[in-house]
Amino acid sequence: MYVCLCKGVSDKAIRQSVEDGARSWREVQRETGCGTQCGKCACMGKGITRDAVRESLAFSTEELAYAV
Ligand code: FES
């Protein structure tokens, strides 16, 4: 689904950005351009970023539990 119509950014692109190492909304904005024009998508973009970072951190914590 498209989140940002101005820049053509999808929720998948935001999740991919987090997967590639972005850890904040600001970094996702820099990577994708989401929310950098009219700003109407910022609230949804931040929410998707927050959830993706949370999922990513939970996954890495699980990896640690197995590694120890
Ligand atoms: Fe994302 Fe306009 S819809 S900046």
Note the topology.
Blueprint: E1 2-4, E2 9-10, H1 11-19, H2 25-32, H3 42-67
Antiparallel strand pairs: 1-2
Helix pairs in contact: 1-2, 1-3
Bound molecules: FE2/S2 (inorganic) cluster (FES).
Spatial order of strands in the largest sheet: 1-2
Helix-and-strand structural type: mainly alpha
Which blocks of ≥5 consecutive residues have pLDDT under 50?
none
The 3D shape can be described as elongated
Ends distance: 39 Å
State the oligomer.
Answer: single chain
Helix and strand sequence = EEHHH
- How much helix, percentage-wise, in residues? 55-70%
Task: Give the domain tally.
Answer: 1
- In CATH, the architecture is Orthogonal Bundle
Question: Ions, cofactors, ligands: which are bound?
Answer: FE2/S2 (inorganic) cluster
- State the CATH superfamily name: BFD-like [2Fe-2S]-binding domain
